[in-house]
Amino acid sequence: MFILRLFSPAFGEIEADESQIFSFPEGLPGFSHLKKFLLIRHRDNSPFFFLIAIDEPEIYFILIEPSRLLADYHVELSCEQQGLLHLSEETPVLSLNIVRIPPEAKEMIINLKAPVVFNLQEKIARQIILDADYPVRYPIPLSKVKEKADAGTK
Predict the structure, then answer these.
(1) CATH assignment at residue 143
(2) What are the average pLDDT values for consecutive 10-residue runs of the chain, which has 154 residues?
(3) Which stretch is the leader sequence?
(4) What beta strand segments (E) does the chain contain?
(5) Domain tally for the chain?
(6) pTM of the entire predicted model
(7) Element housing 83 (H / E)
């Protein structure tokens, strides 16, 4: 197992092992040139993660586990999408959603239409556009997020 060390302007010196590195064969929309990302959890039991571009660590995304906030949100992948991610019934999967927190905002915006799905076994991931009628911009009050995050640490 190798250890990756990189410096990110937002996070400082980061040390991570290879289990936290994911390949994005097509990159992310708008960042197709970036193929390798580091996925780190904000802190234990936090619903937040950071997805940091290895080749350009100044580029990162904030992601969240939507199930921690929205009980009725479910990611259903088509057979084609499952194939692109090399998924089977037994494959461990993590589905996260990109969030945007505008400066001085009282709410954050979650993209529910296009989750980032991680194949935890093969270490590949893709942002998938769901067929379901979920919004691209779903607002959630930051107070609700803080309440749920605090509940997860107890």
Answers:
(1) 2.30.290.10
(2) 82 88 94 96 88 95 90 90 92 95 84 96 95 92 68 54
(3) none
(4) 3-8, 12-17, 21-23, 36-41, 48-53, 60-64, 93-100, 107-110, 116-119, 124-127, 138-141
(5) 1
(6) 0.88
(7) helix 79-84
